């Protein structure tokens, strides 16, 4: 059975906000919208297994073929074949030269469980990580973490400088439930992507754009959360940026206003003109979706998970920022 986003056994009672699950020792109760009570966690290790101890050896990073193209995966050991992800908002840690905390850490969040050891277990290694087939050794590295296991210093594997994680809903190596997940639980919010082994960029697959009515307004929206059980193929409003310099949203700006990424040409869903859609290359080599030539962005303040935190909304319309003004795209 697929585990709900709040559904992991834990060793103590955890208080939740209204509408979220309440977790008790030995038994898991979930709110009605998540279905029936979940069964006890399997004893055999799988891709969902939380981190409870330091690794004893070097970790191998490999590749596998998915619907999103060739992506990074764990190459050996208990978690061989499990999908690996990067989080866009972890870039804040890099931009501040490590002064900012990791976006997926052990801090408080709406679910009440550690992000880096339970929800998105960090890929740890004891020694330099090993490059498997299709992986560039020059892009592999490590970063020291002291927040994954309390009081213990561990090394997390990085690729192109970005920390790698598993996702606790990927019960088998074939699953990619964390792909393109627009996540409000991390701090700051960000998007989880599978990883292209060629350059270490996001591997978003071919994005679909939709017409979506939110709060009485019909606007252009991006289809995200492709395989996420609580919001599969969820749609989120997209924004364009207007400023006098004609510059795009990069660096700190892109942490709040995440570029809408695609592999190949984006696909037009209902109510969207395929001819209006295009792409533009970003400095990091990723491909950003455009509409009538204007690059598109997601606002992290719109990210939500039904029954956990937030609701579908348009929170960024008309926002005046240091980088310019962001607006949605009305569709008739």
The number of strands is 25
| Largest sheet geometry | 4 strands, antiparallel
- Let me know the average pLDDT: 87
Order of helices and strands: EEEEEHHEEEEEEEEEEEHEEEEEEEEE
- Radius of gyration, whole Å: 19 Å
> What is the oligomeric state here?
single chain
State the end-to-end CA separation. Answer: 41 Å
Briefly note the structural class of the backbone: mainly beta
Count of alpha and pi helical runs: 3
Judging from the principal axes of the Cα atoms, what is the shape? Answer: globular
Fraction of residues in H or I helices: under 10%
Number of domains: 3
- Give unreliable regions as ranges: 7-44
Percentage of β-strand residues = 25-35%
Which helices and strands, and how do they pair?
Blueprint (H helix, E strand, L loop, with lengths): L21 E3 L2 E3 L30 E7 L2 E6 L10 E3 L3 H5 L19 H5 L4 E2 L4 E2 L8 E10 L2 E8 L2 E2 L17 E3 L6 E5 L13 E7 L2 E8 L9 E4 L1 E4 L9 H5 E3 L1 E2 L4 E2 L8 E5 L5 E5 L2 E2 L1 E3 L19 E3 L2 E5 L4
Parallel strand pairs: 3-7, 13-19
Antiparallel strand pairs: 1-2, 3-4, 5-12, 6-9, 8-9, 9-10, 11-12, 13-14, 14-15, 16-25, 17-23, 18-21, 20-21, 21-22, 24-25
């Amino acid at each position: 059975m697929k585990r709900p986003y709040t559904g992991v056994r834990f060793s103590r009672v955890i208080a939740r906000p209204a509408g979220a699950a309440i977790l008790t020792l030995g038994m898991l109760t979930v709110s009605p919208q998540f279905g029936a009570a979940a069964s006890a966690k399997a004893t055999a290790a799988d891709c969902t297994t939380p981190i409870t101890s330091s690794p004893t050896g070097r970790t191998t990073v490999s590749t596998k073929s998915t619907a999103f193209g060739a992506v990074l995966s764990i190459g050996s050991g208990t978690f061989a074949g499990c999908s690996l992800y990067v989080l866009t908002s972890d870039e804040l840690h890099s931009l501040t030269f490590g002064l900012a905390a990791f976006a997926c850490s052990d801090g408080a969040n709406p679910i009440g469980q550690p992000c880096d050891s339970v929800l998105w277990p960090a890929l740890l290694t004891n020694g330099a990580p090993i490059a498997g087939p299709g992986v560039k050794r020059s892009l592999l590295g490590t970063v020291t973490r002291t927040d994954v296991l309390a009081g213990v210093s561990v090394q997390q594997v990085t690729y192109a400088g970005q920390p790698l994680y598993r996702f606790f809903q990927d019960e088998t190596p074939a699953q990619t439930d964390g792909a393109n997940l627009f996540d409000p639980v991390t701090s700051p919010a960000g998007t989880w992507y599978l990883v292209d082994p060629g350059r270490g960029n996001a591997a978003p697959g071919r994005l679909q754009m939709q017409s979506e009515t939110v709060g009485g307004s019909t606007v252009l929206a991006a289809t995200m959360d492709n395989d996420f059980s609580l919001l599969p193929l969820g749609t989120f409003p997209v924004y364009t940026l207007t400023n006098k310099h004609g510059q795009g949203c990069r660096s700190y700006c892109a942490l709040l206003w995440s570029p809408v990424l695609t592999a190949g040409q984006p696909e037009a869903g209902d109510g969207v003109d395929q001819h209006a859609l295009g792409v533009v290359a970003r400095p990091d080599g990723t491909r950003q979706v455009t509409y009538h030539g204007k690059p598109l962005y997601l606002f992290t303040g719109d990210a939500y998970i039904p029954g956990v935190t937030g609701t579908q909304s348009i929170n960024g319309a008309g926002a005046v920022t240091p980088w310019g003004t962001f607006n949605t795209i009305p569709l008739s």
